[in-house]
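User: Here's a chain of 228 residues. Predict its fold as tokens.
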Amino acid sequence: MVALRQVFPVLLLALAVASMPAQDTTSYKSNPEFQKAYREALSMRGEHVMFAPDAYKKANKIAGGKCMECLLGLYTAQMELGSGKDAAATAAQMVELADTSLEKSRAHFCRAQALLAQAGDKPKPTQLDAVEGALKESLAAYPRNPGSLFMEGKVLAMMGKTDEAKAAFQQCLECSAPGDPSRLRAEHFAENPALSLAKMAPAFTVKTLSGEKFQLDAMGGRVVLIDF
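Assistant: Prediction complete.
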């Protein structure tokens, strides 16, 4: 039994944007008013996350609607608050603002993630088609996006396309760094995509009090009690 807060969407987002360069510095970043508003938005975490969307919108308004970091922060807050519909709209704004292949891939991934969250636990075929369409856009922009490949494998498994799901998870393995916490999970799913449909704690690696490396997925299905 694992007692752990469900942070799988956030981990996927981190996987998708890893090693992607930040947006180029623009004039608004030197604006003291923007800097203050953006710092305030960044401080809206934990129990204050409900105030984060308005704070990021304020900062982005000062930036003339051109702040990709503001939109990403807004999107993340909306996902944490369970506002999939709002997050999908924000991701659409990110798609419009993106001007590099990596940014476009990240934006389409975010939209796919929001659409899946909006669909709930039992998405309809048309909803899965919409998610898959966004993922294809993401991979068209950047074919080696491990987060998009991982999520595509999961969505294809939900659609009953087992062979295609296996291929997607295998591609994810080839694009993931050796130390990535999700790598071992992708390996398991490549062998049996149906496993990706089970409710699981997020993949993670931590160092124990004795200094040893602990990787949840390395437990091989054994019962694990985690005390933080």
